[in-house]
Amino acid sequence: MRDIEAEHVHIGGLRAYLARPLGGTDAGMLLLPMVTGIGEQVREYAADLASSGVTALVWDPWHGRSSDDTEPQRLAESMTDLRDEDCLAEMGILLDHARGELGLARVGVIGWCLGGRFALLLGARDPHIATVVAYHPSILVPAPDHHVLDAVDHAARITAPTMIVHAGADTVMTTETFAALQSALQSRSVGATVVHVYPGAAHGFSNRPRQVDPVNAAAWTLSWPSVQRFVADTTATDG
User: What is the CATH T-level fold of the domain 4-235, as seen in this structure?
Assistant: First the structure.
């Protein structure tokens, strides 16, 4: 494991969080948080990736608020303010910074819950994305009014290797929607599809408060190292 440096940063008028290994790296990931925003746990995700040799740049959906200082319910009430095109534009600014100023040769995207859905959308929009990871993505049917883009439809357009981490007892993304997502990914002519299913685990099992349930805790303990290996393999630049 490598020593890291981490700090909140401002990029193109956006607040973000940056964690990177000392000595630099060519590999990077854009992190799209769950409803917690850039809270303590998401910063730990970034630190884990940076320690493994991957620069982690975290998008801030709430422009300063997070679970560190705001009740999760209040953050959840703000989800209807997240407009797909506006959010994707912000992510594009961060990707340009990662590839430009940070000098990262290969940059992937990983998201949790609401961020998992955006990871699929961004992976479809940006052909240069190196890898896509979606942790229990929040894909609702019928879609709420602020979800104007179809994540399942977009998933079929992703060209990067893609990993889905699915909660077997997910009540946000239904079994039928999960099957449609899996079918869309497997219909692609390029890009490996890796699907991990954790039976009995609930939507958002990566969120620490939900890990009081031992099934959710076990799912996280097993899934996170697998995801980190997948990220390392798909963002490596040494051949």
Answer: Rossmann fold (3.40.50)
Using CA atoms, how far apart are residues 198 and 67, in angstroms rounded to an integer? 26
Contact assessment for residue 172 and residue 185, using Cβ atoms and an 8 Å cutoff = no
* CA gap 32, 116 in Å, rounded: 7
How far is residue 144's CA from residue 130's CA, in Å, rounded to a whole number? 29
- Residues 145-170 have pLDDT tens digits of 999 999 999 999 999 999 999 999 99
User: To which H or E segment does residue 14 belong?
Assistant: strand 14-21
Token pair, residue 110, equals 């990983």
Number of other CB atoms surrounding residue 141 within 10 Å: 13
- Reported as a single tens digit per residue, the pLDDT across 41-84 is 999 999 999 999 999 999 999 999 999 999 888 998 999 999 99
Amino acid residing at 13:
G
Where along the chain do its domains lie?
4-235
Please name the amino acid found at residue 184: A
The helix/strand/coil state of 164 is: strand
pTM exceeding the 0.85 threshold for the entire prediction = yes
Rounded to the nearest 10 degrees, the angle between the axes of helix 84-99 and helix 114-125 is 70
Burial 105-130 (b: 16+ CB within 10 A, else e): ebbbbbbbbbbbbbbbbbbbbbeebb
